[in-house]
Write a structure and sequence with these properties.
Layout lengths: L7 E7 L7 H12 L3 E7 L5 H10 L4 E4 L13 E2 L1 H6 L4 E5 L2 E5 L2 H12 L8 E5 L3 H10 L6 E5 L3 H12 L5 E5 L5 H6 L4 E4 L25 E4 L8 H8 L3 E3 L2 H16 L5 H5 L4
Parallel strand pairs: 1-2, 1-3, 4-6, 7-8, 7-10, 8-9, 10-11, 11-12
Antiparallel strand pairs: 3-5, 5-6
Helix pairs in contact: 4-5, 4-9
The protein binds NADP nicotinamide-adenine-dinucleotide phosphate.
């Protein structure tokens, strides 16, 4: 790739960024479409976030992705916020439109792309259980409740967070939404009533690979679809146990590719085939 005076610059800010797949995904997309762009990782300390966002404007960086732990923290420094990102309260994509910085969130719809296009699931009328009520759960729950699903049940260790997410979602959706805590073990029986169960917690993520998001997996039956948004390891303990019980499984690499595909389109105006980005995730 030749870098010259016309090369457009993109990147990702976070802490850490050394394991991010985003540079490989976006640079592969530029290569595929022969675009004179480059995408680089940018490690930023929290105290420098206001300066880093200003630098996007000052250095005419065309767009940046935002990763852990800054998706909420960057918001006050932006000029405009997409209504969906505003409702979620987190931004993973900042587009520089002639000096105006606009924030978007493509995480939830990234998972929807993975479920629908990659796994071939029709979400219509499905009962979906969501494990977790953190940042990624918010964007996924928001996207799922914009689809024609039957019901969404949010299970979280800290019940107050599940209840708050349910209340927020109900302001924007007429889908049936329930919140459930882990106080007694009834939720384990109720989990089996879902068609799809999605782990959005960090339990099971490297290096805590022996952790499960729920203590018991005996609710899993053949016919269930279990998804984990973690992609390192590629098969979490949750997915291993679900597969052993006959469920179909999907990991989080498709969500990562999906959010990248949507960010790429916001950045460049071009569409990129899903597999071009997915192939770069290791
Ligand atoms: P977060 O905002 O910190 O939320 C963490 C959630 O996990 C909370 O609901 C927390 O429950 C729950 N949790 C943590 N440890 C748990 C345990 N041992 N047992 C049960 N619940 C537990 O994190 P996040 O940003 O949503 O990220 C969550 C995971 O998603 C991470 O592994 C991240 O790598 C992954 N992720 C993947 C993608 C992708 O593109 N595939 C995108 C974003 C995030 P409490 O409320 O009770 O603390």
């Amino acid at each position: 790739m030749e870098i010259n005076g016309k090369t457009g610059v993109f990147g990702v800010i976070g802490n850490p960024v050394d394991h991010t797949c985003s540079p490989a995904m976006h640079n592969a997309a530029y290569k595929h479409l022969k675009l004179n762009y480059i995408y680089i990782p940018m490690f930023v300390e929290k105290t420098f976030i206001p300066d880093a966002v200003k630098a996007v404007r000052a250095l005419n960086i065309k767009g940046i992705n935002v990763t852990i732990p800054y998706k909420e923290y960057v918001i006050p420094y932006l000029d405009k916020l997409d209504p969906v990102a505003k409702k979620i309260g987190a931004v993973n994509t900042i587009v520089n439109k002639n000096g105006c910085l606009e924030g978007y969130n493509t995480d939830g719809n990234g998972l929807v792309i993975s479920l629908e296009s990659e796994a071939g699931i029709d979400l219509t009328s499905k009962s979906i259980g969501l494990l977790g009520a953190g940042g990624s759960a918010k964007s996924i729950a928001f996207s799922l409740t914009q689809k024609n699903i039957k019901k969404l049940v949010i299970y979280n260790r800290t019940f107050s967070k599940a209840r708050k997410l349910k209340e927020d979602l109900e302001q924007n959706s007429s889908i049936e939404i329930q919140a459930c805590g882990y106080e007694n073990n009834d939720y384990l029986k109720e989990l089996q009533d879902n068609d799809i169960v999605i782990n959005t917690t960090s339990a099971g993520m490297k290096p805590d690979e022996d952790q499960l998001p729920v203590p018991d997996m005996s609710w899993v039956k053949p016919g269930h679809f279990c998804c984990d948004i973690i992609y390192k390891p590629s098969k979490t303990l949750f997915l291993k146990k679900a597969e052993l019980s006959g469920a179909e499984i999907l990991n989080g690499s498709g969500m990562l590719a999906g959010q990248g595909v949507l960010a790429f389109e916001l950045f460049t105006g071009y569409k990129i085939p899903f597999h071009i980005m997915k192939n770069e995730i290791n």
